[in-house]
Known about the structure:
The protein is 47% helix and 17% strand. It has helices at residues 12-22, 39-49, 59-62, 76-84, 101-110, 120-136, 145-157, 179-182, 187-191, 200-208, 210-223, 261-269, 300-311, 315-331, 337-348, 359-380, and strands spanning 2-7, 28-35, 53-56, 72-75, 88-93, 111-116, 139-142, 162-169, 230-234, 240-246, 251-255. Strands 4-3-2-1-5-6-7 form a 7-stranded parallel beta sheet, sandwiched between helices. A 4-stranded mixed beta sheet has the order 9-8-10-11, covered by helices on one side. It is globular. It is built from 16 helices and 11 strands. It is of the alpha/beta class.
Amino acid sequence: MKKVLIFGSTGVIGRSTLDVIRRDRNNFKVIGLCVYKNIKLLKEQIDEFEPEYVCVVERNVGESLQTGKGRKLFLGEEGLREFSSVKADISVMAISGVSSLNPLLTTIENVEMVALANKESLVVGGFLVKEQARKFNTKIIPIDSEISALFQLLNLKGRDGLEKVYLTASGGSLLHWEKKDIERAGVKDVLNHPVWKMGKRITVDSATLVNKGFEVVETHYFFDLDYRFIDIIIHKECLMHAMIKFKDNIFFACFYNPDMRIPISFALYYPERRSSIEDFNFFSKPASLSFSPVDYEKFPLLKVILEAAKRGGNSLVVVNACDEVAVDYFLKEKISFYGIFKAVDYIFNLYEYKEVNSLEEIFFWDRWAREKTEEYLRKLC
């Protein structure tokens, strides 16, 4: 039986992970649950899964939690560090944002495998994550649907003669909007994703295609691929998640239903191929697939992300922090949808390129970018 820790158990990925485990109690035991502050749902999860360890990052909220006898409760940032040191077979890292980097680096020391759902940790600190994983011989299996698809394709087909890898993008909620109309898109419009049900920031990032830019960075780090070998195509049906092309013009693609439990199952059971969720038959009803190139004029922020990725150094740390702040302003209806692009573009033209070689430097530039973005956006509001 595999012992599992779940970071972010009340979020979309955390809940989906628990649903996979709920269906196969003979193979998995949840020994730890970690949340930011949603203790109402956490209480239900504790009652159902009876973990040995519980962590609430928001200390003031967590102090009121009654976990029951014999259960260790960790509180605050210090508690998160202690929770990350718990020994387990699998850690599911589903905390959003750059704040996941520290607990990720710590849990890598203490588990056999990390099922990684967090993009930002690789975007801002991919070199540190890879170095830590090598040092402790810890497997990192992607949960992100497109990166999981690429992982499977490359494992099956190898790399001899590989020419290009393709990530698919749904195009988000504004795919069919005219560019002139996108400026007036409101929060409800943007959060109305036609296929995926995700957290608010990632849904906004899907509409700007920032999310897809971050997946390009994930692909670069996961598979040691130069950026020139990675491309993006629009595929609104979200059934094909990745594709690889070989030099003889042969393509191989990975299809599955847009259900996050599928890549989660793949990660939890790896290297076996098993599933505890209901069967999906792609051919049970008529279906069509469409593909189109990215319209970079409609999605200008994607250009910035890809340029930051190619520059390296502190560039991705800066644009990630700026995007997070700007998306928060948009969600609070303080700026327009394209105001996110204006903020990131402004900071991207303001910052000074520097090499980044340590965790301290990552967090320095993260703070710098957040402060400068706040200054810029406060002037606009």
